[in-house]
Amino acid sequence: MKSNYLLILFLFISSFGFAQGYDVGGVVKETGSGLPIPGVNVQVKNSTIGTATDMNGRFSLKNVTSGATLIFSYLGYKNLEYKVISNNSALSITLQEDSKLLDEVVVIGYGSQKKREVTGAVSVVDSKTLEALKPVKIEQALQGTVSGVNVTTTSGAPGAALDIRIRGIATNGDNRPLTIIDGYIGELGLLNPNDVDTITVLKDAQAAIYGSAGANGVILITTKMGKKNSKARINYNTYTGFQETSRTLPMLNATEYALLLNESYANGGNPIPFPNVSGLGKGTNWQNEVFSTSVPIINHDISFSGGSDKITYSISGSHLDQEGIIGKDKSGFLRNTARVSLSADVSDKLKLKTNVIYTYFNRKSLNESGLGSVLFNALNTPATLNPYDVNGDFTLIPSNTGLGIEIINPLAQIANTYNDYNFKKVNGNFGLDYKLFNDFTISSSIGFNTSNSESKSFSKEINYGGKVFDVPRSSVSQSAINDNDYSFDLFGTYAKKIGEDHNLVTTVGNTIFKQFGNGLFATGFDVPYNSWEFADISLTRGIAEVLTNGSYNYDERRLSYFARAQYDYKGKYLFSAMIRRDASTKFGPGNKVGYFPSFTAGWLISDEGFFGDDKIINFMKLRGSYGTLGNDQIPNNGYVSQLSGEATYVFDGALVNGLATGQIPNPNLKWEEARKFDVGLDLKLIQNKVSIVADYFIDTRADLLIPFIPVSGINGTAAPGAGSPTINAGTVRNSGLEFAIDYKNKFSDNFSMSVGYNVTFLKNEVLAVNNGIGYIEGGSFGVGQQAPSRMEVGKPIGYFYGYKSDGIFQNQAEVDAHPSQISLGADASPGDLRFVDVNGDGILNSSDRTNIGDPIPDATMGFNLQMNYKDFDFAVYTFASVGNDMVRNYERNLTDVNRLNYVLDRWTGEGSTNTTPRVTTSATGNSTFSSYFVEDASYLRIQNMQLGYSINSKFSEKAGITKLRLYAGVNNLYTFTKYKGFDPGASSGAPIGGGIDFGFYPIPRTYLLGLNINF
């Protein structure tokens, strides 16, 4: 009996020993490079216990049963199993790339393709890059990280739009790429950047699967999803910081201004305005007055994700609050988002998925560009004037001829600006995949966007002293807009392996896309108490003399069919063919339908037997593509006549508002056609540590939709709301070379680094403008001058067209020997700009205007660096633009305005200078648009710099935290440029006239402190 007790005791002790728990931890790395892999799922087999690796690839699990098996899994890598037999907090786990899994992550539209078999020009930005960049708007993450992509700002104000151009400007119309979010058409600028997992850019004929919508390139967004068989994870990210202007312009101080103005008046034969300049000092720095410092920005983001073997989920929410560096809350932006993503394997054959995003934002804005903007007024207001008068009221800027009627006190302008814009949007999709049989899957998806916006602006009754901004009667304008669209996709995919060497994937389907919406606008006069608090149309009782309300509605549709076949032989000879048929209601009955075919091919040279086992070149692929895409991004109903014009008629001696015909119709309108050619080479070298991608491309856009074709005025084209017809009459070609090289390596257990560089060389040329006059004009310069930009055959689209200056007249003999410049407004005198008689006819007039600059850069490039040392990480991202010109148009052509201090080097006598003309109150031609106002706007910008520190997981996990990272960063750290203005990279976004600087609101420099926590 005693022996039985001893046996029982022995078994008890043995079972306790087997059940004891061990603490296990370590780091997970890549094979070859040895770089740590963040986000690897570490799961105890047949249990719900698990964790994920942190930014440095570290993980830690406590109390793991002896003999348990850990499963390490990560997309693109082979699963690895490790059996726990003892305590070990210094495991070194190495995951090998799984070519099969790795190659599935490239999204190409209506499916995915193996990375090694992609035959188009495709670039990907991953979530690791997004985390390092911390963009406020997701578009900013493409600048400098993807070759062939250029992102320009229309304004540095919070919430301002950004323009994306893929491989240049191809059309005089809409150049924006198509954005697809998880399979449906969406809006890139509204996304919370922390919700995005990958950004894939289709730059060539690979985008032809989207037909008419993909002519400007396609951006595919994949949002973050939960992972199967992973426990619930909570990720919280936050940052707070402050902003300041990244640049101020060197203006004349009060004393310099007064002395220069005296000289100007004396040169003009007028009495000097400042007989005594002593005591003026530096005066008012108006830029310091309008620019605020330590302007706050704060962001919070939280997400919950996880999954079982059948269901995955991801739920997130974010809050961004950003004030402006001009006007603070008068120029603020607030954005809230919420997202729910679910997927479920209902059965072995049926999978369901949904992704729904809600976005709300509120934006307040100031006059940010053009004559009369806040910065325009700040730059032109003399430093001798004070912001406030003796009574504490805003100083009125004099309305004499020397200061004109456009310049007002910028502080008063900010204080008297009242507007509010609220936007709400719900978008998403619901989809299913059904495997009809082994090789054939049917996919269906419904995507939708529905948005509502309300805006209100208040014009306060105010007198600025005889300025154009005087408001004799208060008013409030309000609008309500509802925009909707939905798409229905149904397609089948057949994937078949034929024998040992042949692989075939075919996709056939159709898409229905519809846009519809309406808008309502109204204005009410005589706001009670002349106050923003009472600015509502329901409270106004003023009677208007003109029509004060309006509305619109629209309904546009597109029906498409598409087919794609992808074939490879032995995985090394690759072919694909696509065709899409689109029918659009934007064109007349005979031109609704367009057919858009494309072809791609590739050759995996490194898989050939003759290539051998080369230790230097690990992978080599040659690829090429050619295809045709369409574009229907034009105003609605251009092919029919509408009563959309305004007219005033006289009946019985009284004026009566009525309707008139709108734009003259053109029933022959048809699709713009984009013909895309690309040949590329992909290389991986030195144990896959170095990756090289090179592409040569030609993108020709034909049948451009050219508006405002000259016709007889008898048709009433000059009436408000009327206009000349639009026809297909232009061709533009973009050609260039893209090159990208990346290097990543782990030099030791403590130090790893990755470096990337990309460059794009681009040439843009207009091949045809068949509108009767051979060119299209755009943009504006000064007041009352001819348009400064053109689209013309043989030149880049939007080039600058004006007089060429070749220096300064040094003496009267030079003036007498030169053709008279009196046609420019005044005859020249010594010290004035000398313009070139381009055609050599001895007469200087408008026929001598010529190409004096190009806003399109010759080359753009990015250089990016990431380093990890122990628990520290460091990243820097830069972008450069070379060869882009910009027009300096923020200086008002009036005698008494303030000026940049470069005028201190003005001409004062023979030989003094040959670059800057004299100052005078006399009439001259110096303000005529010429090369004098065109500057080289090439620049190099340090876009982002960030330093982070991750708390060792063996300490943080004691509090249940799998990752705890602190970081500090600076966005828009510094811009190296010779350009005199605020932002050499800004643009209005217009294809013709976009590079004209009216005083662009600069992008703020932002200092951030942030925290990342994962539970």
From TrEMBL:
It comes from the Bacteria. InterPro entries: Beta-barrel_TonB, Beta-barrel_TonB_sf, CarboxyPept-like_regulatory, Plug_dom, Plug_dom_sf, TonB-dep_OMP_SusC/RagA, TonB-dep_OMP_SusC/RagA_CS, TonB-dep_rcpt-like. Pfam families: CarbopepD_reg_2, Plug, TonB_dep_Rec_b-barrel. It is a multi-pass membrane protein. It is found in: Cell outer membrane. Residues 1-19 form the signal peptide. GO terms for molecular function: siderophore uptake transmembrane transporter activity. Its main location: membrane. One of its GO terms (cellular component) is cell outer membrane. Residues 114-218 form the TonB-dependent receptor plug domain. Residues 380-973 form the TonB-dependent receptor-like beta-barrel domain. GO terms for biological process: siderophore transmembrane transport. Keywords: Cell outer membrane, Membrane, Receptor, Signal, TonB box, Transmembrane, Transmembrane beta strand, Transport. Belongs to the TonB-dependent receptor family. This is TonB-linked SusC/RagA family outer membrane protein. It comes from Flavobacterium glaciei. The lineage of its organism: Bacteria, Pseudomonadati, Bacteroidota, Flavobacteriia, Flavobacteriales.
